[in-house]
Amino acid sequence: MICMKNVLIIGFSSRNIVKSANNAGYNVYSIDSFCDFDCKYYSQSTRIIDLGDKTKSCIFQEIHELTKSFNVEFDFAILGAGFEHIDFSEFSVPVLNNKYDVLEKVSNKLNLSKELSKLNIPHPKIYCPYDIEECVFPLIAKPILGGGGTFNQKLEDLEDYYKFKDYLEVSCGKLTDFILQDFVEGVPASVSLISAGSKSVPLSINEQLIGIEWLGSYAYTYCGNITPLKNFYSKQMEKIAANISNELNLFGSNGVDFILTKNGPIVIEVNARFQGSLDTVELATNLNLFNAHVNSFRSILPSVNPLNSSYAGKAVAYAVKDFVVTDSIFETILGENSSDIPNKGDFICTGDPITSIIKAGFSRHEVLQSLWTSSKTIYNSINTSGEVK
């Protein structure tokens, strides 16, 4: 068997995959939109890419050029979030990800709804944004493509709908880029699993932290995870996630997002690539997800110890004001066991992620309290810095 050593990670924010690959013993090179301090630490070399409003072909060409600039012979590449909608079938490096046609099915919310309907899996009803007379409020407007929740908007009634429509027109957005979906009340959660075509292994059930006020986030923005989430529907969620994975012939690290309602779990999204929960899943299970991802393409699946009782949490802190990362802010973030660490001198805009706080403990309460305490320390450092704008 050929020993694969040099790996290229491409993602909007790729630090968690880069770290996992580094821990697995690979020589890691990365292309992402932040090139955070710790991403550079775990990489042999990094390149930054600004996605902006570029076309798919322009992004692909830029990645091709950046890849050549490393002057390295790569054994394979792995794509993270942000690149699901670009076809890498003609890329110069072998890619260990789900195939493009599969990604088109699951990352497009309209296409995913059709697939879930075929499988008789409960999911929110989707409406055409122009057939408003057929809608039943409340609704949630979501981009057809992309996740993270930043652009999600709850619509309570027709007045909210027309306000949202007007906002899109003013901001040069398109209503056709959004779907309207039944608003589902409940607990946000996810199942992380490793897939190998017609078989898969659920690794963990994760609580999702969404729109957390003390993390400076918007209403439906992803703010992190706590792993594991123990609940009455655990076995049902694992079965549903595995069924989706097996039927769609997924490979590697995948995740299925749910809302846990009083009537049971409802599937919201499928993330057919590494997820933001990677950090907490690895901490809670003692598995290296990068190795598990690579091995799945050889039809090798990991074994999971169901008795593992440790808890892990990740909290993404967002900027509530514009500021520059001073020496003191940098040292504070570094001292709070954070990841996705900004570089000294970086300018952070309001609403942008500052850092990800990672904690472990023996209970959900202990982990959540530790995340909260560290977030307050970081925000206090930002507020007292002379460089706040």
Automatic annotation (TrEMBL):
**Domain called ATP-grasp: residue spans:** 100-298
- Top-rank taxon, per record: Archaea
Ligase is among the record's keywords: yes
Q: Which Pfam families match?
A: ATP-grasp_3
Molecular function (GO) terms for this protein are: ATP binding; ligase activity; metal ion binding
Q: What is this protein called?
A: ATP-grasp domain-containing protein
Cross-referenced InterPro entries: ATP-grasp, ATP-grasp_PylC-type, UCP016817_carboligase
Q: Which GO terms describe its cellular component?
A: cytosol
Keywords from the named record? ATP-binding, Ligase, Nucleotide-binding
| Keyword field contains Nucleotide-binding | yes
